[in-house]
Amino acid sequence: MTETQLSDLPLRDELHGQQPYGAPQLSVRAMLNVNETTYDVPAEVVDAIAREVRTAAQSLNRYPDREFTALRRKLAAYLTSESGAEIAAEQIWAGNGSNEVMQHILQAFAGPGRTVMSFPPTYSMYPLYARGVYSEYIAGTRSEDFAQDPDDVAAQIRAHRPHVVILCSPNNPTGTALSLDVVAAAYDAAQDSQTMVVVDEAYGEFRQPGTLSALTMLEGRPRLVVTRTMSKAFALAGGRIGYLAAAPAVTDALRLVRLPYHLSAVTQAAATAALDHAESLMANVERIKQQRDRLVTELTAMGLRPYPSDANFVLFGGLPDAHRAWQHLLDDGILIREVAIEGHLRVTAGTEAETTDFLNSLRTHLNG
Ligand SMILES: *Cc1c(COP(=O)(O)O)cnc(C)c1O
């Protein structure tokens, strides 16, 4: 019997010839390509998660709390202490990664015949989310240094009148943080078209001192949404927990599109346990930020061009042949990220030892 090929199936037209998301998953010495925390989950957090999951397991014959009440309360308390903004449990929504949360947003506010806009180079998933909900994707522009200017962002939103606009701050893959006047200008420009404005703060905890979270702007802005994740700063990428804060009416909209009981009891248990240990998990965030700043300093000293970063990674240019540099690093057991920007690579800030290994290997390559 001959195997059925994908092209034999009655696939949706717009999916023909498309590629799935596929950052390489290789097991090498230093995995610095998808911005995970490279520190292991601390033993006390592992124990707490195991205890909570064990308790949850006793009731797995029942559906989980559809409203993830305990988790929402803890996420609200965490965001309040992290951002200084007063965030209530009714403002919180969560899903299996902020990827799912973003899908919920687009299912509720975009969809067929509607448009989704973001500003490349940015997170490569945004056009894919749009495609998945049958929306048209609009690629805005940003300046040469990847910064965004309030007037320019406002003008682009007024010109395109998208249904949803996604700002990414700090931006992946460039590390660029947005000042809040950009978010304010985007929101004001979106008033006329009633555009939902989403700020993806997946890397929010890594922001430089003095940079404020868009969470501080939610008050009085019912179409503003701020998404966060436990995948990066919380060292819980494998747990698949993302969340957002917005006006309570927004979370009511998302209830209309989520699948029933989308957040498993095991996920809720793991997330609440990790949140109880937010403080010790954040100790590693400080160490990672030091390595991030060290990467910028040392890459500059090597004659390369790193961009300022508010995230846990650094984008750098100035490479004569980025793919060759990437391959040299991989041959040394160091996996970083190739990006769609000519002559550039992106590296995650790992432990001090990983950062040293990366810098040494790259130095050897450049001198070789
Ligand atoms: C890593 C990342 C996320 C997180 O996705 P999860 O589904 O929460 O793991 C979201 N947005 C951006 C820009 C990211 O880089």
Automatic annotation (TrEMBL):
Pfam families: Aminotran_1_2. It comes from the Bacteria. Residues 32-361 form the Aminotransferase class I/classII large domain. Its cofactor is pyridoxal 5'-phosphate. InterPro entries: Aminotrans_II_pyridoxalP_BS, Aminotransferase_I/II_large, HisP_aminotrans, PyrdxlP-dep_Trfase, PyrdxlP-dep_Trfase_major, PyrdxlP-dep_Trfase_small. The keyword Transferase applies. Residues 1-20 are annotated as: Disordered. GO terms for biological process: L-histidine biosynthetic process. Its EC number is 2.6.1.9. Signal peptide: none annotated. Keywords: Amino-acid biosynthesis, Aminotransferase, Histidine biosynthesis, Pyridoxal phosphate, Transferase. It catalyses: L-histidinol phosphate + 2-oxoglutarate = 3-(imidazol-4-yl)-2-oxopropyl phosphate + L-glutamate. The modification N6-(pyridoxal phosphate)lysine is found at residue 232. It is an enzyme of class 2 (transferase). Homodimer. Belongs to the class-II pyridoxal-phosphate-dependent aminotransferase family. Histidinol-phosphate aminotransferase subfamily. NCBIfam families: hisC, PRK03317.1. This is Histidinol-phosphate aminotransferase. It comes from Nesterenkonia sphaerica.
